[in-house]
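Sat 14:20. Reprocessing the chain from the morning session after the first attempt stalled halfway. Input below, unchanged.
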Amino acid sequence: MNEIDIREIYEKDVLAIWKKFENHKVFSNPDFEYRKHPLLPEIVHKESLMFIGMNPSFRKSSVIPENEKNIGFYQIPKEENSKDIPYFEKMKEVAEYCNAKWTHLDLFFIRETKQELIENLSYTNLEFLNLQLEISFEIIERAKPKLIIVSNALASEFFGKMKTKHNSFKKIWKGFDLFFEDNDVLGKKSTFNSEIGTYEIELNNEKVPIIFSGMLSGQRALDIGSLERLKWQSKMILESRAKK
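Finished this time. Tokens:
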């Protein structure tokens, strides 16, 4: 199988998390009813270019379909309708430039536009986040991505960036060692590969390149020059790995 059936494998696990925390204050406000309905991809492609986001957004003017009231699953847009979802347009553009198959996964499944919610929960309810992270990182490992692009600054922290900020909360993140240079104090070697210009993390006993990027859509999206560099670097990394 070249894909992971997220609905079949993880639906019950995600619903169990929401059931466990159904009385949490994050779900009690009637203005945020949409948070009660987690959202995940229908499938995740294996051995592809993987884009990682923070969590699915939601406009209060939107309406959740009746069949998604317990849990929803979205599909990566196909060629003919990819323009219908602006969030995916730049991912598709990068992947097409690289001539690569691509996939997408959010680290968290709670619908919310303001990601401050996740940051606040990281200080107040670690278990709710950690249970989701256990699932999302298991999916990442199963997917065996050729390259990971984390297109959200806060999401990068759950991979191990800014460890000093989260010194007391190690259990909520994967916590990869991400050292730009050798750290003699900690006795840690650099995990930054200067030949490809980015970090590498270990998944399934293999080094996998990971790019920490800015957002690809929205008001804080990358400028044209930064997007071009991301395209070039991604293609260079994928081509160099294909030669090995």
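The longest strand covers residues 206-212.
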